[in-house]
Please model this.
Amino acid sequence: MTKISLTVDGTQVSDDVEPRMLLVQYLREKLGKTGTVVGCDTSNCGACTVHLDGKSVKSCNVLAVQADGAEVTTVEGLATNGRLHPVQEAFRECHGLQCGYCTPGMIMQTIDLLNENPSPSEEEIRTGLEGNLCRCTGYHNIVRAVQHAASTEAGAR
Amino acid sequence: MTAVQDAPVQAEIGKDRRRKEDERLITGRTRWTDNITLPGMLHLAMVRSPFAHARITSIDKSAAEQAPNVVGVFTGRDLEDSMGTLITAWPVTTDQVTPNHPPVAVDRVAFAGEIVAVVAARSAAEARDAAELVDVEYEELPAVLDLKEANTDSVLAHPDLGTNKSALWVFDSAEAGTGGNVEDAISQARQDGIVIEREYRQQRLIPCFMEPRSTVVDPTAEQLTVWTSSQIPHITRFALAATMGIPESKIRVIAPDVGGGFGGKLQITPEEWATVTVARRLGKPAKYTETRSESLVSGHHGRDQWQKITLSATKDGTVTGLKVELLADLGAYAGIVGGGVPVLGAFMYNAIYKFPAYHWQVQNLYTNKTWVDAYRGAGRPEATYAIERVIDELAAEVGVDPLEIREKNWIKHEEFPFTTVAGLEYDSGNYEAATARAKEMFGYDELRAEQRRRRESGDRVQLGIGVSTYTEMCGLAPSRVLGQLNYAAGGWEHASIRFSGTGKVEVVTGASAHGQGHETAFSQIVADRLGVPFEDVEVLHGDTQISTKGYDTYGSRSLVVGGEALVRAADKVIEKAKPIAAHLLEASVDDIEFSGGRFSVRGTDQGMGIAEIATAVFAAHNLPDGVEASIDADATYDPVNFSYPHGTHLCAVEVDTETGETKLRKYVACDDVGNIINPLIVSGQVHGGLVQGISQALWEEAVYDESGTLVSGSFVDYLLPTAADTISFEIDHTTSPSTTNSLGTKGVGEAGTIASTPAVVNAIVDAVRHLGVNDIQMPCTPERVWKAIQGGGSGGSTEGAAMPHFESGGAAGNQEQPGTSSTEGGLA
Model:
């Protein structure tokens, strides 16, 4: 067992974990952060995407011990003072989700994408989301949601 | 008059309401089954067979049993007496041959991935560690993997059955009295018309819902409670009771948030049955959540058919007959719909065309592969693919535009209602209107002109235009029809509407959503019907203790059947409230009118809202004599007919003739899905369906090696499209309301998938037809397209290409080239 301390969605946490424990298992099993989900076992689907020190990572591809001392944000930590993050709003507004299983990962990846490129082209959006699989939407409305978020965030700046 | 009375009633139906479901889904406040943790809960891991067909000679559990925190290790033999069996609901013929399907194999495994032992431990990681310590000895048996070989019975998937043939199901229009004799039509056409003969391959697909399946069982309460990631909680409850000998009243099945299904969760599974059995055996709550790799190998697959099509026509291209002969792979076992999946296509191959004669048959077969069952469209995409491909071949033979040959043969809008050669009555449709709109959106003539230019200039990149004019049968299903087809259950749907004392409305539906947006769309329907605010309606579903009756969600049935049940329940509520309103308003019940949520006395300004009535009923201080203190109502609706959405899809694909690479350039869909409750939800259904269908055409295939191992058994190997592989779509709708339900709806769940696969393949073939190509086998990989251009037929099977590291000369190339021939009568 290895002791780790980190910040998750603004809260300080500390636990003894097996060295092999994945970050996503730590979030779900130790912290009850079940908003972040597991969709595959080969790091293809991106459903488990979270932010590690502000950058998106697939949390099935990070060991919990690697997050020691880091700041982790999950989909559960995005809303501030009861207000949804603009990207969350955009996914609802543009019907960018159906079953919603890929959605936490899509939202976290979209935020990272827009942080890097605040006004992406459709092609840049599609390439930027290439690591996140969705089986319901055909991606059409996910792309619209990212465009919508980009324009509302631009409006807010 | 109050402000409330003056407020205009704005129709909810047709409004693009944002979904009620989304708030919890975008914030991570979700209830996926795997999120559930119960006190003292054990975790299960499955030991699975690596062999496609083998006898289990011994299982040594001792090392696993001694592993840390392991609570129990169970073989099929250990569980034999209590684990029940997995049943099929649809033996398609009375003499169907069906193997017994134990949830955990007892002495023999019939596909690679089948469960042979279950490990229970205090954590999921410990259960998986221990599963690796279970030592199973197998004696390998010959496996039958190829569908055509299975049909020869030379190797048997289940030796004790003596045959691989499950059932032969036949429909013949001459015998049924719904049309002429197809053999006569074909021989006539061989003399003086056109006969097109083709063989198409429906490759095996994997549903790939994003949420891996999970089951949590709590055996400690009075009712055995089963949370499961399923489309069918009600059917699961019935089947558990029927096969395990537990009274149905002692079982509660809950499908909480379910992350997609596409037919893949329309199943009763070995994993569910094993989890229930082990939890009961240990008397402790237990959870099993599959890995993605387990999901791909053990969850049922879809499609997997060979389709032999013979179409006869007169020289001018008027169709005279259609003969369909299918081989369908059920895999190792008959699933819950099982052999019925191909049969669902039996009534659809004639599609929108006026065939005077029709013969359809399927030979269902067992092989030593993962079982095959419903996958998005279930039988109907296969039908649409074959007919829309072969109609293109007829157009090429006659030498006219593919749309022209369709128009010549389709049912004209003034001919509805139309009884088809398959015996169905299409109630409404307008193929002309949908096609005209699609052509306009597509810029059909301009793209044809560009295609000509590229062809004439010998451009390396050729343009192809694909057409698909489909229809489908939705709203499964009239129970009487299901009975005639030997299906074991019914097709009705149930709804209840209840008012709380504060005037809020709870709607209970037997449909069980997993992404479709029922909570929103059903709220809209009830809000309109009862004239209550959208926000005041709460839709409850997916828990058999709340929604006690239902047939769940599949086959585009939720709105068409479940929605109609809602309407009827709402109408009963209004009828129950009327005498109470009359009593409270001191009027005769004959003078009471209901409109916009308000009961009023005809010819006066007196009235009261339905919520006020609900409050009055709750108190029950002043009700008419003999009237019960409730305006709640139930309805069970059994449809009398299917509904028939249709549409025209047009697709432009660029094909690089030097590399075989294909690129989607434009995709237009104009669907007639009847009246639309929520256009936002409908567009989402279409978009997602399109990509699943396009993906069959271009990317997806479950590939097995020569020993029966699924080599596309992870998301690294099974090609699901990403955002970067796909394009934005242009969609629109024409509307001819269905006449078979009050709302005029037809269902939209499968339209995109059904239509798009042939549209894409037709486009690719169209791009290279002038190079001598008339078929390319799916998925149309660059290699296959390139080979077809080089004169290699339809491009061959995937196996060799997928496995360059395997030695050649084995049974890998187990799929024959489809035979293609086309003869024009009189010239031979």
Summary: Residues 109 and 129 of chain A are 7 Å apart (CA to CA). Residues 86-156 of chain A form a domain with the DNA polymerase; domain 1 fold (CATH 1.10.150.120). Chain A touches chain B through 57 residues (CB under 8 Å).
